[in-house]
Every structure is written in C-alpha cells, then in structure tokens.
Amino acid sequence: FTENIQRLEVKTASGRTRIHRFSLEQLRPLAGTLAIITSVLMERSAGGQCINDLVDSIRGRVAEPELLLRLDAVVASTLGNEWRSALYDRFDSQLAAETIRFLGAQTIPSVPTAIPPEVMDIHFRVDLTTHPLTPPEGLCQAGGLFAAMLPR
Q1: 124 in Cβ contact with 22 (< 8 Å)
Q2: Which end of the chain, C or N, has fewer beta carbons within 10 A?
Q3: Taking a C-beta distance cutoff of 8 angstroms, is the pair 134, 38 a contact?
Q4: Tell me: the pLDDT tens digits for 132-150?
C-alpha cells in the first residue's frame, strides 16, 4: 500500500516462524520514501475468520467509493486465480492480532547493494523471528497510512 511518501508491505507466515519472502525493491524503496513491513503469523482454524469476513469489516469502515474499488482490486490481485476458494479459508484472527509486528524496511537483512544493472527481479527469504521491532507509537506519530494500519 502507498500514500504520499509512506509505503506499507504486509507479510504473513504460517506457524510460529517469521520467514517472509521479499523482493529487493520492497526493502530498498526510492529515496525519501518511508517503508514499513507488517509481519503477521497465521494459522488455519475451522472456527476462525475468513478473508471475506475481514474484507467486509474493512468495507464497513470505508465511506469513499474509490477506496472501496481499490480495496477490491488489491484483494483480487493478491488472491489471483485462487480467489473463490481463498475468500472462505478460515484463519485464527486472535493469533494474527497477537502476533502482528512492524519493522522498518531498512532494518531487514538484505542482499549486498552492489547489484549489476543487468540483474533484475531479485527475490529472497528472510527469517525475522528474532528481529527487532518498530514500536507502534512511532508509527502513530508519523500519521497517514502508518497510523491507519494500527490495530484498534
């Protein structure tokens, strides 16, 4: 997600280990851009909340039609061809709420910066299980997108 100079990347991991897949571009945004990675642990749960429930909850808090269209577009592009079945997969929302963490993109271990110009589309996995976190209070003070993403 982006708003002005703020950029938010949301990553989920299954189980209890925070291993996420990144592109180099996600961790090295353009100069002057502030990027935060939101990390959430997810587990399937027959009695849990489904993505459709989550989307409906967000829709209930958004009044602007263009933002609702953007929400639908992001959900559709994220789920891709699996959207029909994915909308009804159920997850433990309490675990997700308890394990949400925020990290500054620049603090996440990455590949060396001397990348030849001919090399493109670099992707890698990083284990963030013991990585330091960004305090949510600082995100609130930044306002905008960062303040809006914090759990209520």
Answers
A1: yes
A2: C
A3: no
A4: 876 666 666 777 777 777 6
